[in-house]
Amino acid sequence: MCSENIAHVRFMTFINTSFIEAENLENVFNVLLKVEVALLALSWIEFLYTFYLLIFIRAMHFNLTFLFINYGGQYFGSMLSRCIIVYVQLYPDKNLEYIIPLANYVRTVCLFIAMYILPIFMVERCLASFFVKNYEKSRKIWVSLMILSIFHPLVFASAIAYIQC
User: Fold this and answer.
1) 3-state DSSP call for residue 59?
2) Of 6, 31, 161, 162, which is most buried by a Cβ count within 10 Å?
3) 70 domain-assigned
4) pLDDT confidence bin for 14, thresholds 50/70/90
């Protein structure tokens, strides 16, 4: 049965800090969080460069590039959510505690996008084979929009069902 209480929901990115406090490992945990911040900063640089390449260097068909940009957007949302969670863990503030469930929802949805992304590339390539006469010469943006209009409701429904049920 689905839970209405936020305390009973499942998130993919949960760390039990009460155990860390009970074992007096707060300093080790804070050092690990700071290392994670450094790795996230490096990841941001890598992401921005990759996103730049996807936008300005046309190495693939437009629809395939559009789907890869969608995948990059999921990575951006996931990283941003993780940065928010790490900030709240490093600098606890009672006024910011409402942000953690929201960031976890966004991160879980983004992780479901990452888990479900491979079949949409296959569907796009199958449609490219079906329209083989003129697909590579024309954009046919409706193909990627149709795929994403089916994909995103499925992802959001799956992520919310995972969290709540």
Assistant:
1) coil
2) 162
3) yes
4) low
Instruction: Give me 80's structure tokens.
Output: 């941003």
Angle at 69 between CA 106 and CA 62, to 5 degrees: 150
- Which three-class secondary structure string do you get for 4-34? CCHHHCCCCCCCCHHHHHHCCCHHHHHHHHH
Range of the domain at 151: 17-164
8 A C-beta contact, residue 68 and residue 60: yes
Token readout for 159 is 């992520």
**pLDDT tens figures, 40-82:** 889 889 889 988 988 888 888 888 888 888 888 888 888 899 8
Provide the mean pLDDT of the chain.
84
For residue 6, is pLDDT > 60? no
List the structure tokens of 161: 């069902």
Number of domain units in the chain: 1
